[in-house]
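ESCALATION

Customer reports they have been waiting on this structure for their group meeting. Please prioritize. Original submission:
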Amino acid sequence: MVRHGDAETVRHGESDSLRVSASPLSASSTAPVSGSAARFVFLDGMRGFAALCIASYHIWRYEPAPYPAEQAMPVWGDWLLKHAWIGVQILLVQSGFVIAYTLRNTVVTPRTALAFVARRLVRLVPPYWVTIALVLAVHGLCAAWRRFPSLLDEPPTAAGVLAQMFYLQDILGYGNLSAGLWTVAIEVQFYVVFVVGWGLSQRCMLDEEAEPLIVLDVTKVPWFVRRTNLLIFFALPAAWALFNWNRKDTNEQWVHHFLFQFFLGMVTWWALERTVPLLVFLGTIAVVAGQMVFDRSLTSPEIVARFVTLATAVSMFIAGRTNHFHDWLNWRWLQYVGRISYSLYLVHYPVGHVVTWLGWLACDNLPTPIQSAVILSMSLVGSIAAGHLLYVAVEVPSVRWAARLKSPTTRVEPATTQSEKGNA
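Update from on-call: job pushed to the front of the queue and completed.
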């Protein structure tokens, strides 16, 4: 239902590349490898960069015709903005890494699994619902004022809005109300898939003589047992996604379409934690790289997407091995954008739409190339400001509410990363 509906239906192999948007990696900052009070500064910086890429891409892409800002932009700048959709690949890999880290010591039982999913929903739902309300308000304003077009192709329906509120819009065949909302639905599906798979792999490592809720320290489980469990529950489905599911445009409403991107992040953490041998991580990288080199059926956007996922995973691994998670990309402005990235990617489309069209109205709908470029820049600035407001007013309280749902659970001892051992 987004105006210029290809925003939510871009497929692999088409000229506009992938479905583009930021994945809601987390509603708050990630935690440190060592469990100290520090944060994963490097990941926060990457997330901020990815969110800026996504917002810039959508704002640039949805400039009203005849796209005068393109005349003021150098060729290389236009190329970069048209390929800024790569931010979604960064965030998908990061999401797999962060969730694998978050549940690394958690004993998965029905109770802890439900609690985990509930906490994530409490963090994600309030900003998401506020964004839906904002989109509907902007649509109503456009319909009443009639000075510029709505951001929706067609009027929303009650059934479509309800489906959107409960992450079912793509599954039930309704259009997305705003660019980016589909990724929240994929993220929620990933939470369920990961916690179920992680729980099943734990069941295979249970000490038969131990208490029912006690899981063996993963460092004491032979590496080949750990590798076999993860191969069965994660690696094999991820490989099938890489070579099959991700190549089809008929299943993009389901998480398995993006499973190999998530898995790259998961295996990166597991290799750092030594849950799996280094060879498993290197083998995963080699398989994806091999497909890029030898599979001639891959389209250019698919190759770019795989390259970015590999670069993201490798950079995170190097940062972890060299103990630089806490200082790389530690620029204050980028760290702040990373902190508000979830709110930014939620609101940038409706806010950018309003700011862009108000700017065009101020120019009698005939802005010069320079004026149009300034208008688009103001759209990005306005989106960041709106993201800040949503973060402070809604997202931060949501994170606090989610924290109250935490309860003591049996945990396994965390394995020590290479970086902590000083073996970088």
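Sent to customer with the following note: The longest helix spans residues 110-145.
Escalation resolved.
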